[in-house]
Design a protein that fits this description.
The structure holds three protein chains of three kinds. Chain A is mainly α. Helices cover 77% and strands 1% of the residues of chain A. By secondary structure, chain B is an all-alpha fold. In chain B, helix 1 packs antiparallel against helix 8 and helix 5 crosses helix 6. The chains are: A mainly alpha, B mainly alpha, C alpha/beta.
Chain lengths: 307, 299, 251
């Protein structure tokens, strides 16, 4: 029953480009991208329990690495691999210094890191094009991007689901609950922290590369900007962290709200957006998925784990 | 002869630079100090802190364009106003989160203060317009030897100095002030000796908002301000707090000064890199000395 | 009996304050060793040093002939030392069985299949009487249940040596005797036990060997009945006033 429902949903999503509207695939590409970023953020933010405000660093690294290597005549596949590698290697390098920080301090450090990357991208103009941005050759990519992001979104969810059900996920949440106790009970904490960050980075880095490939033009603000930094975190928290359905619901919600507010509200749409985010923080501890009515429905679908 | 002139010129320039740096650092320190108080007392990352600064700047801009009243006078009026703003902010948005477990509270506080920050920015942009506002307030400068001294900057420095002393006295001499300091050092300890943590948190938000708003007054005198300066500035203040040592108030002041000087000096040689210095310093400190340059180990 | 753990000349100070000073401890395999001492005597610090959470300033800990040196707590756990905490620290938002599962998966050497792991978790929960709370979140348990959960989680790592930090504090007499019975049963299964305890009835009832820490120094050790009545111990607990009656020193 559940499987059938989910399969139907996937089939519906896959058929969207054939519904005749060229607007719908564009919207869904954004939606999938938001979902991918929110879910990959949640590996570290929700399961490991470290609020990483610098998740977009991986996205931006992937985006720029892809653009730079592809422009340097690397084959497409190689450029994608380089993008993922850059994000993952950076994640491995930053793990040790950054995981010495805990709680709000970690968030603070990673928030500074993303800003540093934005400024570095501005300043290393010879490599990144600076404030002028970076362009890659264009061609028709709407449908390929649609299916790429759809597959990547499903893949991301599959990975997170697998993690949540496995002992890897158990190690992550034990660190979230009490790092010292986890270590006392045999969990090699730093190793799992690094692993979580690298997993999270690989997905975001790949998404960054796909983004550059699709959107053709990037600049420091678009990939490393404050808005980009906060978006995945806000979506995951809004939907509910540490549950597979959370970031999905958050991403769908934000994508629709943004789309709706942009078109319907002439002004103050950002204010409304801000108030919604603040309202969730105030009145929905644990995010939308933890509202009892919704949680019960999701549990039936097997989309909220006991984590 | 030429060499001597050059040297003298350099000395003048560097003195000007240093004065500018100290002033900029003082402004940073004011706002960052407030954020540090809030952080120390409530352990909350107040991402809306820069908005208090932006609002302070906007109000003093409006008052000045409307009445030509000196911003220094406006600043005095901002003190009760922003105490109320900060304290209401705590009451309405922060206190409701206080019962939640640590991790959930961190998540909720980020959502709430981030949401508030975005909303305040947009309301401000709607109310005041999205364009840059610069307050064209000047006072005649005077000359000491070869150095031209800007009276505004001097007055600004004096104001900051007085404020710092007042704050220092408040924190050292009054019961409420000492309760704040005690809470930043040990929340549990303060609770055990009967400090009303809620009131202290409320007070720290009130004071934090005042300091940020006053920093905003000086900010708008020196730089043009848009409704969107808040969040990037908050980030910079967070860097300063890390630089000075988490939870160390004295360190925050010093951190602000150091950053102000570094920025001005870097800007002199390479304007592009000035903005970057805060974040390079931040990351370097995290790598080398996570407890901050002047801080002590906490926890 | 062979020595399972030997701590030699351990010293540790915090910001100049001596927490433990030149303490040497030998635990015999299969025995229950009690550790008593007034508050602040350094008992928990000694536990933290053994489990690797705190590095001593001086001295070495040898477990099963292997020097622990700079091993991290997770390695030490997998070598076979496990513990409970004075103030219970279960993984609060996780279900009871997953708390224990963490010990099974990560606290042992080698791989264990999921099915076998789940079976062992159920056995352990049965042993501590939490079988029917299996799916409840640890935060929903009361203090007594949380203590039992901690014991189950510690046993899940298949320890050779179990450190118990005031497990009966806060329990009523019937709960206390139930826990004492569990501890005896754990020992019968071949686990060496080192326990910190304030309740004298429990220490005296369980321990084969008793150590007394005072101001970070080991002031007495030996058979429980002897140690408890030795002048140094009586003085440490009661001050300089000579106690009368049962506590009278027997030399």
């Amino acid at each position: 029953m559940r499987t059938t429902l989910l399969l139907l949903l996937v089939a519906f999503l896959a058929s969207i480009p054939f519904l005749g509207s060229s607007y719908l695939p564009t919207f869904f590409i954004i939606l999938f991208m938001n979902l991918i970023l929110a879910s990959s953020y949640d590996i570290v933010g929700g399961y490991l329990g470290y609020v990483n405000l610098g998740h977009a660093v991986f996205f931006g690294l992937g985006a720029y690495t892809f653009g730079i290597t592809w422009n340097a005549q690397a084959p497409l596949g190689v450029a994608f691999v380089c993008a993922v590698a850059a994000a993952v290697i950076f994640a491995a390098l930053m793990a040790y210094p950054f995981f010495r920080l805990h709680g709000a301090y970690f968030s603070l450090g990673t928030f500074g890191l993303i800003r540093l990357f934005e400024l570095l991208a501005f300043n290393f103009g010879s490599l990144t094009g600076g404030s002028g941005g970076l362009s890659v050759p264009s061609s028709y990519r709407l449908l390929p991007t649609f299916y790429t992001t759809l597959i990547l979104a499903l893949l991301t969810l599959a990975i997170v689901y697998k993690i949540a059900k496995s002992r890897l996920g158990l190690a992550f949440v034990s660190i979230r609950e009490d790092e010292k106790v986890a270590r006392d009970f045999g969990v090699p904490v730093l190793r799992y922290q690094t692993l979580a960050l690298m997993l999270s980075a690989s997905i975001a880095g790949l998404m960054g590369a796909v983004y550059t490939w699709y959107i053709i033009y990037i600049n420091p603000e678009a990939v490393f900007g404050t808005e980009m930094a906060l978006l995945p975190v806000a979506m995951a928290m809004l939907g509910g962290t540490g549950a597979i359905a959370g970031p999905v619901i958050g991403a769908v919600f934000i994508s629709i709200v943004e789309e709706f507010l942009w078109t319907k509200l002439p002004y103050l749409h950002l204010a409304a957006y801000g108030l919604v985010i603040a309202g969730v923080g105030l009145f929905m501890p644990g995010g939308i998925v933890r509202v009892p009515f919704i949680e019960a429905r999701l549990r039936w679908l097997g989309l909220v784990e006991d984590l | 002869m030429a060499a001597r002139l050059g040297k003298e010129f350099m000395a003048t320039v560097s003195l000007q630079l240093i004065i500018g740096g100290i002033l900029q650092g003082g402004i940073y320190a004011l706002a960052a100090f407030g954020l540090s108080l809030i952080f120390g007392v409530s352990n909350i990352l107040n991402l809306a802190h820069g908005e208090f600064l932006m609002l302070g700047a906007m109000v003093s801009f409006l008052v000045y364009t409307g009445t030509e009243l000196s911003p220094f006078v406006t600043a005095l009026g901002l003190i009760p106003l922003f105490f109320a703003v900060g304290s209401l902010f705590e009451r309405g948005l922060i206190r409701p989160l206080s019962g939640r477990p640590d991790h959930m509270r961190l998540v909720a506080s980020i959502l709430v203060t981030l949401g508030a920050s975005i909303a305040i920015e947009d309301f401000a942009s709607f109310a005041f317009g999205p364009n840059e506002k610069a307050l064209a307030y000047t006072l005649p400068s005077f000359q000491v030897g070869p150095i031209i001294v800007s009276t505004i900057r001097l007055a600004g420095l004096a104001f900051i100095l007085v404020l710092t002393l007042a704050l220092h006295t408040f924190l050292k001499r009054t019961y409420q002030g000492r309760a704040i300091v005690a809470t930043t050092q040990s929340r549990r300890g303060a609770m055990l000796v009967g400090v009303n943590i809620q009131r202290v948190a409320n007070l720290s938000f009130g004071i934090g908002a005042i300091l940020a708003a006053l920093a905003g007054v000086f900010f708008v005198i020196m730089f043009p301000v848009t409704p969107y300066v808040g969040l990037p500035l908050t980030l910079k203040y967070l860097c300063i707090i890390v630089l000075g040592g988490l939870g160390s108030l004295f360190g925050t002041l010093l951190g602000g000064l150091v950053l102000g000087l570094v920025e001005i000096l870097v800007a002199y040689y390479s304007p592009h890199w000035s903005e970057t210095s805060a974040f390079i310093i931040l990351v370097l400190i995290l790598l080398i000395r996570p407890q901050g340059l002047f801080g002590r180990f906490s926890g | 009996m062979p020595i399972i753990l030997e701590a030699s000349s351990i010293s540790k100070s915090f910001r100049g304050l001596m927490a433990i000073s030149d303490v040497s401890v030998r635990l015999e395999e299969g025995q229950i060793t009690g550790l008593i001492g007034p508050n602040g005597a350094g008992k928990t610090t000694l536990f933290n040093i053994i489990t690797g959470g705190i590095a001593p300033d001086r001295g070495t800990v040898t477990f099963l002939g292997k020097e622990l040196g700079k091993l991290t707590p997770d390695r030490i756990c997998r070598l076979g030392i496990s513990r409970t905490y004075q103030l219970v620290r279960p993984f609060l938002s996780l279900p009871v069985y997953r708390n224990v599962l963490i010990g099974v998966y990560f606290g042992r050497d080698g791989y264990i299949s999921s099915a076998k792991a789940e079976r062992e978790v159920d056995e352990l929960l049965e042993f501590v009487g939490l079988r029917d709370k299996r799916a409840a979140r640890a935060s929903e348990l009361n203090t007594v249940e949380r203590k039992h959960l901690e014991i189950a989680r510690a046993l899940a790592t298949l320890p050779r040596l179990l450190l118990l930090d005031e497990v009966v504090a806060g329990l009523n007499p019937s709960e206390t005797s139930a826990v004492m019975e569990s501890i005896r049963e754990i020992r019968r299964r071949g686990v060496t036990i080192f326990l910190i305890e304030h309740v004298m009835k429990v220490v005296m009832g369980l321990s084969d060997h008793l150590l007394v820490l005072h101001h970070g120094e080991l002031i007495a050790e030996g058979k429980p009945e002897k140690v408890a009545t030795s002048p140094a111990v009586v003085e440490a607990y009661l001050g300089h006033r000579r106690p009368a009656g049962a506590y009278h020193a027997e030399g």
